[in-house]
Design brief:
Oligomer: single chain
Distance between the termini: 21 Å
Number of strands: 38
Number of domains: 2
Number of helices: 18
Structural class: alpha+beta
Helix content: 25-40%
Amino acid sequence: MSYLDFDKEELVNLEYSLARETIRTNRSGSFASSTIVGCNTRKYHGLLITPLEAFKGERHVLLSTLDATIVQKENRFPLGIHKFPGGHFFPKGHMYVADFSMEPIPKITYRIGSLLLTREILLVQEEEQILVRYELLETPEPILMQMQPFLAFRNIHQLSQANMDASLDFGWVKNGVKLRMYAHYPYLFLQSSKAMEFVPAPDWHYNVEYPEEQKRGYEYQEDLFMPGYFELSLKKGDSFIFSASLKEAMPVGLKKLFDKQLQKRIPRNSYENCLLNSAQQFLLRKEDKTELIAGYPWFEKWGRDTFIALPGLTLAIEDTSTCREILESKTAEIKGGLFINNGETSPPKYNSADAPLWFIWALQQYTLHTGQKHYVWERFGLHIQAILDAFRHGTEYNIQMLPNGLIYAGVEGEALTWMDSSMAGHNYTARIGCPVEINALWYNALCFALELAQQAQDATFEKHWKDLPPLIAHSFREVFWSDEKQYLADYVREEYKDWAVRPNQVFATSLAYSPLSEEQKQKVLEIVEDELLTPKGLRTLSPAHPDYKGLYEGSPEERDAAYHQGTVWPWLLGHFCEGLLKIYGPARLALVEEIYLGFEEEMWLHGLGSISEIYDGNPPHRPNGAISQAWSVAELLRIRQFIQHYRQQAPALSAELEI
């Protein structure tokens, strides 16, 4: 039995199996996702989902699924499964699933009497191509196998409906066909390593349902187009590769390609390897740019998420070159001292007040890891100065330094911090004013820049900025700290101070440069641990607050209202653990280890082998949101790095932990 393995008893229970999803990605931006029994439950599920040049790089679902049917004499055994209205599933191919494994790639084993068939799925690393390998391990006699491709040809955020514009045409290629549903799409090549017959039988399959979209309050019924089916004969021991690609493949080379690609995969045979494997899935390389996807299945490239996740996904696993590539790629986006926030918007919006400061933090982490201070100042010094100047003198969205040295950010109708949920122009946590984490990051960024400038003997920069850190530190303590409450205000706007207990204050304990005293850091960590800490992350609001929402569920409006009002975020744990270890050292290592090890059970839940975006604030803290989130994985890898560091410093501590 492999590490991520599920048996028949679990698989035939649809309540169990449909709640567990797979995600596979490649460097070109394509991905494949479904449930462990192959029943798509989201509009974001599909066998080949890929960015298309014709749509400015938007990702589109081309091949939704591939149903197989085994024909033995007069008997037909359909292996597919779809949900239809009335709670009906048809066909019910999950009844034949005997085993599912994720090691080293997703593999389903079907058993029909004495017949045994396996299906493995693999994305080609640098191409828009999915390979599906079928192998007939046991059979009492030769069989006929039929495969029905279900096509969508639509944006991942939309749904397809039956229409008269869909093309019925196709063209013959070696061992397959090429087709496209609409003229403005590229051709999809469907081919096999073995010769097979294509039988044209165009038909729409109506009202396929996606229950996860229904739960989320979105449209959830889709019509899928089936252009026909492929047919070939198999005997015991036969195997073949089915390919779906945007380029014509050479059938004779498909088996070799499959084996070569398989060798590149990091095994998912342990908790640690699952995290390492997952870390690779967010990387995107296009032409001369290297970037990060914020999460799967619906997130795109986000500036803030990139810089927060970058050190954990690269430096924590000794991949300094990729870290450097991404930092260099992202500098092309700087405009007025700000970065593009959401890569999906057109024109792009620069409405992230913290992304530039997280960029400087990521550079700081790179410097701490490599010691390359001179390189960082020479390569990025002008960008750092441009960001600091923009914040000092004012930039878009009313981001500016006040006379007391603190950063004010915000305009009505915009949410500029990471707590940015909004609906119909209403920002649930707008936090207009001086947010505590923005100012902690601002102080850290300026101190780090001065450190680099001093190393490079840049007297001009030093002279221009050296008087600010003492002013900022004094103002930070005076404005945010309460001697009575013994913690930091979440944000301040003129005379108003928001004393809601939120996790944003934790960054003042984790950053390399902090305006707080050691005693103040201890008090911050105490209230965060007492009111916000859960086994799956930090709550975004204390349960004692009247606005606290412990469940993330319901309509889009209800979910957005809960997104930062109690919902738990794993990524915050990295900075909590870092702050804890900086203040208490090995004395709190046991808690940090407990937090890290506590996520191993998540490998079998929600997004298999990865970490979800969010969790409910209330126990049992159900996983929710995106099934695989970059900064969730990244911060666990940083926590792992902290543990390794302290184990090396004091190897006798926690000797039972194997990492």
